[in-house]
Amino acid sequence: MGHSKKQHKGSAGERFSSAGFILAAIGSAVGLGNMWKFPYITGQNGGAAFFLIFLAFLAIIGLPVLLAELTIGRGGRGDAAASFRNLSNRPFWHSIGLLLVLGSFFILTFYSVVAGWTIHYAVQSLGGELYRSADYGAVFERFTGGAMPVVWLVVVLAGTCWIVMRGVSGGIEKFNNVVIPGLFILLLLLMGYALTLPGAGAGIRFFLKPEFSELTVQSVLMALGQAFFSLSVGSGAMMTYGSYTDQRQSLGGAAIAIGSGNALYALMAGLIIFPTTFSFGIEPASGPGLVFIALPAAFSSMPFGSLFGGLFFVLLAIAALTSAVSLLEVPVAYAMNRWGRTRGKTAVAVTAACFAVALPCALSAGGVWSGVKAGGRTIFEWVDFITSNIMLPAGGLIITVFAGYVWDQAGKEAGLTAVWYRLWIVTLRYIAPVLILLIFLYSTGII
Q1: Closest CA to 291 of 319, 327, 328
Q2: Which of 119, 135, 137, 184 has the most CB atoms in a 10 Å sphere around its CB?
Q3: What does the pLDDT read at residue 90?
Q4: Residue 361: which of 186, 6, 112, 133 has the closest Cα?
Q5: Mean pLDDT score across all residues of the chain
Q6: Burial 50-65 (b: 16+ CB within 10 A, else e)
Q7: Alpha-carbon gap, residue 163 to 406, rounded angstroms
Q8: CA distance 84 to 80
Q9: Is the Cβ–Cβ distance between 36 and 316 less than 8 Å?
Q10: Which residues fall within 8 angstroms of residue 170, CB to CB, at 6 or more apart?
Q11: 389-409, pLDDT tens digit by residue?
């Protein structure tokens, strides 16, 4: 194991505190997927039964793969590509690890566009401008067709870059230490208000009272995919964060804390969105437009709606930024290690490259390039499709195969007892790869 303790060249000695690591990892896992995607796919798949299956898959596949990714990161003490090389001494694994670095980079390009939308909507809602027109579909189209998405994209990337430039403990940890507790307080406030709305009870029942007859094979596959994606595994973010943790940190405990934080966030998001949609007669299966088109219609009708709506979009923006920070850190850590440049210069260079790819994404999601399509998809939709449905499952598969078959010290690094180790290894070797393959086949439309 001596060869496995190499440090990042550019970030040697950078470490999270124990609590800082948990909060940063929860921040990475809790993102737009929980608040934007999770509610509408839960709405489309019958509510409570889907939520229960999502939680089951979170435990069966999400936590074991998350633990594997954290373990490789701490054992390899390198970026998402170098950790594999440090632990196996085979260039093949370093090359394959590059896929995770590229995955993070490309996810950030379209993710930062949507993060910009959330900030715009927060500003518009708090100022009351959002509610001047009742046609929220037209409002969204006008916004995405104009120049503002590019302005907000710059704001998101500049803010993310500034946090990453300040380092692991001075930037990423400090940022998450402030915003993750803040996020929780905001969730509590919004949930408390949503639960008191007239007719909220129907939304609570829809979300918490299971109707298993509503479930289809498709629902189960969607729950499996959501459980996998919602923990931020397969992108190298957890591996990079894992490389900054102390040897004394219990990785099993950390994985459970991250998974629990993520599940709690999804539960609270559901208890904000479903009481609100049912209270105002909005279809919970409205699809991706639920947050930007359907919900503003509800906010406009409720007492203190512009404040409630504004805080809701602030919540979304914070969740997006905590994930954006972890996504940027992956290619930054790799580039620092690879070229030995300072953190500041590397962060700026990687962010500039990210902007170059994100700009076409922003302009194709309703803007001047929205007519540019290949195979029926815009640039924005292609980047989303390839990263979410191909690169992330591939990253997850690489992690499970490496920890399950290639690296024989994985159990020792994970610090598991004999019984838990056996369960974990069986899951990584035989269960997780099959389920990840199912996610890939379903999400790419093969099955």
Answers
A1: 319
A2: 119
A3: 80
A4: 112
A5: 89
A6: bbebbbebbeebbbbb
A7: 35
A8: 7
A9: yes
A10: none
A11: 889 999 999 999 999 999 989
The set of long-range contacts for 280-286, using a CB threshold of 8 Å and a minimum separation of 24, is: 283/43, 284/39, 284/40, 284/42, 284/43, 284/47, 284/203, 284/206, 285/40, 285/43, 285/44, 286/40, 286/43
Write the Ramachandran bin of 442: left for phi over 0, alpha for psi from -120 to 50, otherwise beta.
Answer: alpha
Q: Which sign, positive or negative, has the C-alpha torsion 403, 405, 406, 411? A: positive
Question: Is residue 199 pLDDT above 60, yes or no?
Answer: yes
Cα–Cα distance for residue pair 163/446, rounded to 1 Å: 40
Residue 38: predicted pLDDT = 84
**Hey, is 446 helix, strand or coil?**
coil
What are the helix and strand counts (H, E) for the chain?
Answer: 22, 0
Token reading at 299: 């906010």
pTM of the model: 0.92
Task: Confirm if 396 and 65 have CB atoms less than 8 A apart.
Answer: yes
**CA-CA-CA-CA torsion sign (246, 249, 254, 257):** negative
* Whether the Cβ atoms of residue 330 and residue 233 lie closer than 8 Å to each other: no
Task: Please report how many Cα atoms fall inside a 13 Å half-sphere around the Cα of residue 162, on the Cβ side.
Answer: 8
Residue 323, C-beta contacts closer than 8 angstroms, at least 6 positions apart: 27, 28, 29, 30, 31, 32, 111, 232, 237
The first and second tokens of residue 103, run together, are 């995955």
* Residue type, position 59, single letter: A
CA–CA distance, 306 with 129 (Å, rounded to integer)? 9
Q: Distance between CA 155 and CA 157 in Å, rounded? A: 6
Q: Residue 109 has which token pair?
A: 């390009």
The answer to whether the beta carbons of residues 359 and 209 sit under 8 Å apart is no
